[in-house]
Structure formats: structure tokens, C-alpha cells
Amino acid sequence: MNLPAHKKMLSAAAAASVLLITAACGTSEESDSGASTPAATSAAPTSDAPTEESETPDVGAEEAGYADGTYEAEGSYSNPGGESTVKVELTLSDGTISDVTVTPEASNGTSKQYQTQFAGGIADQVVGKSLDDLDVSKVAGSSLTATGFNDAIDQIKAEANA
Questions:
Q1: 111 to each of 24, 98, 118, 158, how far by Cα in Å?
Q2: Between the CA of residue 70 and those of 4, 54, 83, 89, 128, what are the distances in Å?
Q3: pTM of the model
């Protein structure tokens, strides 16, 4: 079946646009995770962190002097749609995270989707770990939200250490 030239061009342009958008979104998420692609299953961070944390959670708490309690902070990060924020509420007990809640605050549909996925998977990766040992890179396919989460964690560390 032969299509007129203008329809072929429109079809090609539409396909290129879809690929470009997909690549841009995928590149942003993948480039932040870099070598963390296997970390999507959290194999790398989980295998390193629990060993250190299970051996030294009290030492980290004593060194840093974090006060027990519930802390809240907003972290920000850049994404293809602009700037986004994510709200983090974290409960500390002896320098160890006993509870965490991430509240998506993005207004952009794609960002909100990634934040929601991140919020659904973050507790499994951080509860029971030392606050000092946290360095989240990717959760449930979302690496950009992790940047905002880590920003909020830095604020919480400063507040809990005061």
C-alpha cells in the first residue's frame, strides 16, 4: 500500500516525536541511576548497606548524635518538566529509621506518577537502616525523585543533629 508523501512524513514525524519523548524520559531516569540499573531491584545498595548498618547502627547514632523523634522536610529536584518537590516524614529511634512516609507533591502527571511509585517502595529500602548510611539512588524506577528524597534527608539530618 502506497501512502502519499505528506502522510509518510507525518507518520515518520509522529514516530520520531514519540521516540524522542520516550528517550528523553528514559534517559533522565537512567542517566541518574547510571550504574545503578541493577539497583532497580535494590541489589547493590541493599547488599552493602544492611551489612554496615546491622554492624554499626548504634555507633552512627552516637557519632552523629541524632535525637529520636519524627522529622519532616521537603526536598527539591529538577526534572524534564521543571522543578519538583517531595515531602518526607521520617521517624528516628537510636539513629535508625523506624518509619518513613513520602508524600508526592508534583503537579505534572509524569512526575506525580514517579513520585507515587517512589513513595510506595521507599519504606522497604530505608526502614531499619541508619540515617547516616542512607544514599537512595532509585526506587520503583524513579531516580529523579531520589534526588529530592536525599535533599530532604540532608535537612532532616541537620535538624535531628541540632
A1: 14, 27, 10, 27
A2: 65, 22, 26, 7, 15
A3: 0.60
